[in-house]
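Help needed: design a sequence for this.
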């Protein structure tokens, strides 16, 4: 819960703050500038509501002191003075915004929420700037397929055209999208990711566009959507192929007109955003199935970058292994970062159905189990690669097994076989099985139900 300090000499105003804000926020009250500054010396707050005209230290003096102290807590000035000059002067001293007394409760709450959201976004952006991955130089690889993808991304970074990154799950599409942003002309503004398959279909629009208070059951206060948060920056829509068709139509309008309506609002909001999308789905096939809009596909697919699966860039495996060992060894207190040639050969020749994500998980597990050894050996890998990845006698399948069957039935049996094997390999954890198959959990669940596959492990 965010903490707000309200500084005002009028008891009636302080009482109003109690009625409006307590319960929604941690509220602290101060009756003059000195007491407010004293409170700030001892406590952290997320936002200050500051009266300009008070006995003793005025609001402007408080702002000046905060500025001199290097205190960057956002301040909303609340003033009875109907003067643009006064408001501008307060802004010069570092105020984030101002509101006039007597204030409208709805306006006050919107102002507070907007300011807190913007402050959180600034902090998130700062964190991203300090994160491990900042640009293309930190993406590991030397293979031809990898270099081709990076070359296309570097061409895309300083233009505002929409980018569609395609490729299997776990290939690093999100990292590439972040690198395009962090290396481009919008790097000083927010990079806002939204996974279209991680939120319920009925909430996609409210996440994207935000909503007004009372727009639907449970909307007890207004919320700014990802679109507005990404203004001047980049909106990254991961797994765009999972977005409901209804939301696709509204996204298309934003891309065409650079404006949208929050859910429950009649007020148009204009934005300036760059959109980068990613998918592991075959969108042309989804268009044929009626699951994806063709006009949206052409709008987001101006620049296409294909991220190759790890099995098509095997020469990069040793580089990635070294990187993940250096990354995870200190965290799990492993002493070794050595791996034998035979063990490295196994890692380089394995097909990695979960791609880089699976490789990183494997390296971390190796370091947890064998990090105190001098060198990771071939025998250390055996427990980490399920026996089901190698066909057992009598369980392998070839096309001849399906000869004479109608195409529909052959396809159905192949899907059942592949999904069942993936579930066994993933110990019946559907999210992991989806990664093995290079699809999403939502699609896998649909297929399991459609094909009548037993999806629970039996003792």
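Sure. Designed sequence:
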């Amino acid at each position: 819960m965010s903490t707000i300090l309200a500084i005002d000499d009028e008891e009636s105003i302080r009482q109003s703050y109690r009625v409006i804000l307590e319960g929604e926020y941690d509220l602290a009250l101060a009756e003059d500038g000195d007491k407010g500054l004293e409170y700030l010396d001892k406590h952290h707050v997320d936002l200050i509501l500051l009266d300009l005209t008070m006995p003793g230290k005025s609001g402007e003096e408080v702002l000046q002191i905060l500025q001199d102290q290097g205190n960057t807590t956002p301040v909303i000035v609340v003033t009875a003075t109907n003067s643009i000059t006064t408001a501008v002067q307060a802004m010069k001293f570092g105020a984030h915004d101002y509101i006039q007394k007597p204030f409208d409760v709805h306006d006050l709450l919107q102002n507070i929420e907007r300011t807190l959201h913007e402050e959180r976004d600034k902090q998130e952006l700062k964190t991203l700037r300090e994160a491990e991955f900042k640009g293309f130089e930190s993406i590991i690889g030397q293979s031809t397929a990898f270099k081709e993808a990076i070359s296309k991304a570097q061409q895309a970074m300083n233009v505002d055209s929409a980018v569609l990154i395609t490729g299997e799950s776990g290939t690093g599409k999100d990292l590439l999208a972040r690198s395009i942003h962090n290396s481009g002309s919008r790097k000083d503004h927010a990079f806002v990711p939204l996974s279209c398959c991680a939120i319920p279909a009925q909430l996609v629009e409210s996440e994207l566009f935000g909503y007004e208070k009372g727009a639907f059951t449970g909307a007890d206060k207004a919320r700014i959507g990802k679109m507005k948060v990404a203004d001047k920056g980049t909106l990254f829509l991961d797994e765009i192929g999972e977005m409901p068709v209804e939301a696709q139509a509204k996204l298309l309008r934003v891309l065409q007109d650079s404006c949208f309506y929050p859910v429950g609002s009649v007020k148009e909001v204009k934005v300036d955003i760059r959109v980068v999308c990613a998918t592991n789905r075959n969108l042309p096939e989804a268009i044929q199935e009626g699951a994806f809009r063709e006009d949206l596909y052409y709008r987001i697919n101006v620049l296409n970058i294909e991220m190759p699966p790890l099995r098509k860039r095997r020469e990069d495996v040793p580089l990635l292994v070294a990187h993940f060992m250096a990354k995870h060894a200190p965290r799990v207190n492993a002493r070794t970062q050595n791996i034998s040639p035979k063990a490295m050969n196994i890692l380089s020749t394995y097909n990695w159905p979960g791609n880089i994500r699976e490789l990183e998980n494997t390296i971390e597990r190796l370091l947890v189990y064998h990090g105190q050894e001098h060198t990771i050996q071939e025998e250390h890998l055996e427990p980490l690669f399920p026996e089901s990845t190698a066909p057992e006698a009598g369980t392998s399948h070839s096309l001849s097994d399906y000869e004479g069957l109608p195409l529909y039935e052959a396809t159905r049996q192949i899907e059942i076989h592949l999904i069942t094997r993936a579930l066994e390999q993933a110990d019946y954890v559907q999210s992991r099985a989806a990664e093995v198959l290079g699809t999403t959990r939502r699609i896998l669940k649909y297929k399991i139900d459609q094909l009548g596959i037993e999806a629970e492990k039996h003792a």
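The longest strand covers residues 274-279.
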